[in-house]
Amino acid sequence: MPSKSQIEYIKMNKNKITEPILIIGSKEYDFDQRNFLKELKIIGFSDIIGIDIKKGKGVDIVTDICDSNSSFVKNYNKYFKTIICMQMLYSVGNPFNAAKSIQSLMIKNGVLIFSDIFTHRVNRIPKDYWRFTYDAHKLIFSDLSYVDSKSRIGITRLNKLVDFRYPIPEINKYHKGDEESYISYIFRKLYVKCFKTSLLSLNRLMPETSIFSIAIKTDEKT
Fold first, then answer.
1. Is the pLDDT of residue 194 over 70?
2. H-only helix segments in 20-169
3. Given the DSSP bridges, would you call strands 48-52 and 145-146 parallel, antiparallel or unpaired?
4. Is the omega angle on the peptide bond into residue 167 within 30 degrees of 0, that is, cis?
C-alpha cells in the first residue's frame, strides 16, 4: 500500500519522471487507501506497466523480479525510462538479483525512484527479510548514480519526509523533534529513561523509518 510519504516523494520529483513507467509491486489490496497507478494518472502519466509476483487488480504482468532470466526481463530489456520500486525489496528473497533485473530494464539515463525500510517492526505482507541503509541502496544498484540531494528520510509514525542526514532523526531519542512539543518531548524522554531495559522501549529504540532515493542509469556522476 503506498503511503502518504511515498506519493509525496513521487510528486516532489515529478520532473524526473518520463514514460514508459514500470511499477514494481503494483497489486492493489482491499485495504489500500491509495495506489500508484491512480496517483500517476492524476499528475499526467498514462504509459504505465504494473508487475507483481501475484495476480490481482493493478497487475498487468505476473513475474518475479528476482528472476533476471524471466521472459519479462528479456522482453523489456532497456525499455523503461522510469521505474518505481517502493517498500518492496525488503520482502524479496534476493534483493541483489532483483536489483540486477531492475537495472537491466532501465534505458540509459533512465530513473529509479526507490524507497525501502531502514527500521521497522516485522511486516509479513507477504514476507520480511531485509533492512536497507542509504549505502545499501548504492551497493545493490551499483550500476546507477544517485542524486544525493534528492534523498529523504520517511518517518512512518509522523507520515512525513525530512532531509537525509545523520543521525537518522528518530534514532536520536534524546533530541526534541522539529514538530514535537516540549511536554511530549519531556514525557518521551522519561519513558525512554524509565523503560530502557524493558520490551516496552523497543518502539523507541526501533522507530519506523524508510529511506527514499533517486538514481540514474548513467556512467556520469550526478
1. no
2. 36-42, 71-75, 95-105, 134-140
3. unpaired
4. yes
C-alpha to C-alpha distance for 183 and 2, rounded to whole angstroms: 32
Q: For residue 81, how far is the Cα from the chain centroid?
A: 18
pLDDT in tens, 157-184: 777 899 998 877 765 555 566 666 777 7
Q: How far is the CA of 40 from the CAs of 20, 153, 161, 216, in angstroms?
A: 12, 22, 19, 20
Instruction: Using a cut of 0.85, tell me whether the model's pTM lies above it.
Output: no
Q: How far apart are the first and last CA of the chain?
A: 30
Q: In angstroms, rounded to a whole number, what is the distance separating the alpha carbons of residues 158 and 153?
A: 11
One-letter amino acid of 180: E
Domains of the chain as residue ranges with CATH: 4-165+208-216 (3.40.50.150), 169-203 (no CATH)
What gap in Å lies between CA 6 and CA 194, rounded to an integer?
A: 35
| Closest among 116, 117, 118 to 171, alpha carbons compared | 118
Rounded CA-CA distance 86/117 in Å is 9
| CA 210 to each of CA 66, 70, 188, 199: distance values in angstroms, whole numbers, following the listed order | 22, 29, 22, 22
Q: What angle do CA 86, 112, 144 make, to 5 degrees?
A: 125
Residues 20 and 46: beta-carbon distance below 8 Å: no
Q: Judge whether 16 and 24 are in contact, CB under 8 Å.
A: no
Cell (9 digits) for 171: 534514532
